[in-house]
């Protein structure tokens, strides 16, 4: 009889990450084709005519959304429950994991530095300086965020750490609007604007973990979709620093989604945890001795008060 292979949350995280990376890679390729072949010459009149790519790209994005929703449904069907607290999600159990997070954060810092160094006189200098500084701050805070449970950081401090990527893409959204709003071709900047908005939602929902307002399935969906858009937007032409920030931000969302999926509890582990908690609740509490002859009891109002014992009455009768 063939032994059934045991399912693993790490295996599920690897499968989900591969699907996301593959979808993002094909999205970047299709968007590159859109930029290259968006207009072609008619063989008869030699006029520029539109192609079908402005319709293909939205359909592909919709298909990617369906794929990511199906992956979450697949995990639910397998009986896995994603974590809803910060301590169970952001921790580094191995030495390799924190080192990888520091490498990702260092690449984000490099992207911010390259952005600051490559500002030209014709660029929107204030917005690019803001984007570069926020990228550096996001890179510095990424590894401490991912290992916050191991380092025992307070939830308030982790909320501050996770606010920097949100502010980064908010600044990027303003920069995109100021740069591309005057262009007549909507498809030139539509992907970037939508992708930046999705990244804001992704980092926002992930920040719900330290704030004790976690929505795991929304975090997973928008993290996958944000990574997809970050990879897809690499087909557009922009400065090297912004490209690095965009690529690393997608990897950051992919890493946070990995932590959520890999720390999910299977149905068996969840039952064991429920039995353990039930046994802990049924265990008798240690009796507290009252040296002064009074016992602490709970009043109807929810406050404790000292109730007289039999020993108290005996001493009173003797007096």
Summarize the model shown.
Helices cover 68% and strands 5% of the residues. It has helices spanning 9-37, 53-77, 86-89, 96-117, 125-146, 148-151, 155-180, 187-206, 216-232, 240-262, 267-282, 310-318; strands spanning 39-41, 48-50, 294-298, 304-308.
Account of the 3D structure:
It is a single chain. With 319 residues, the protein is mainly alpha-helical. 68% of the residues lie in helices and 5% in strands. The protein has helices spanning 9-37, 53-77, 86-89, 96-117, 125-146, 148-151, 155-180, 187-206, 216-232, 240-262, 267-282, 310-318, and strands at residues 39-41, 48-50, 294-298, 304-308. A hairpin with a 5-residue loop joins strand 3 (294-298) and strand 4 (304-308). Helix 2 (53-77) packs antiparallel against helix 9 and helix 9 (216-232) packs antiparallel against helix 10. The N and C termini lie far apart (82 Å).
């Amino acid at each position: 009889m063939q032994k059934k292979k045991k399912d693993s949350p790490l295996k599920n995280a690897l499968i989900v990450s591969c699907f996301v990376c593959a979808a993002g890679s094909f999205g970047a390729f299709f968007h590159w084709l859109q930029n290259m072949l968006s207009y072609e010459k008619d063989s008869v009149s030699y006029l520029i005519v539109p192609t079908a790519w402005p319709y293909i790209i939205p359909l592909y994005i919709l298909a990617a959304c369906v794929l990511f929703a199906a992956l979450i449904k697949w995990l639910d069907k397998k009986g896995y429950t994603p974590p809803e607290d910060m301590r169970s999600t952001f921790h580094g159990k191995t030495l390799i994991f924190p080192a990888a997070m520091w490498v990702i954060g260092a690449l984000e810092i490099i992207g911010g530095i390259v952005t600051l160094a490559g500002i030209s006189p014709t660029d929107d200098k204030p917005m690019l300086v803001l984007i570069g500084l926020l990228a550096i701050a996001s890179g510095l805070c990424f590894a401490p965020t991912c290992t916050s449970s191991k380092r025992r950081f307070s939830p308030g401090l982790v909320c501050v750490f996770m606010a920097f990527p949100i502010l980064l893409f908010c600044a990027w959204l303003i920069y995109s609007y100021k740069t591309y709003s005057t262009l007549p071709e909507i498809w030139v900047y539509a992907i970037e604007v939508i992708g930046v908005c999705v990244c804001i939602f992704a980092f926002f929902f992930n920040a719900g973990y330290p704030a004790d307002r976690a929505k795991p399935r929304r975090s997973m969906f928008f993290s996958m979709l944000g990574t997809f858009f970050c990879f897809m937007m690499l087909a557009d032409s922009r400065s090297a620093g912004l490209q690095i920030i965009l690529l690393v931000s997608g990897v950051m969302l992919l890493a946070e989604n990995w932590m959520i999926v890999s720390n999910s509890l299977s149905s068996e582990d969840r039952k064991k945890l429920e039995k353990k908690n039930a046994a802990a609740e049924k265990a008798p509490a240690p009796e507290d001795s009252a040296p002064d002859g009074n016992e602490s009891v709970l009043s109807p109002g929810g406050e404790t008060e000292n109730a007289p014992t039999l020993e108290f009455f005996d001493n009173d009768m003797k007096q």
